Amino acid sequence: MRGARWTLIALIALATAPASRADTLRCGSKLIEVGDTKGEVLAKCGEPDFVEDIEEPVRARNRNGGTYVVGSSSKTIWTYRRAPGKFPAVLTFDGSTLKSIEFIKS
Description:
Blueprint: H1 2-16, E1 19-22, E2 24-27, E3 30-33, H2 38-45, E4 50-61, E5 67-80, E6 89-94, E7 97-104
Antiparallel strand pairs: 1-7, 2-3, 4-5, 5-6, 6-7
């Protein structure tokens, strides 16, 4: 009984998670992996449905505990809508290198 309860809790936690991370994405018969370049992803998956460029400040901590901006970092997020019944894929690039693949559960 106790094991069944933990299994149920684990299943509920998985079902309510907003996104899941993956190391690979299949585009037709091609496989996309973290570490691929934008050019490789474009060649295998085609143009994304949505593109978003994000500029984020890079901060450092000073001696008294405060922070200050030392530069900026840019990320590009590509979203692919997939076949019906499949979650959209969100690819995050740092520069031209794919850093993460997530599947957004609605």
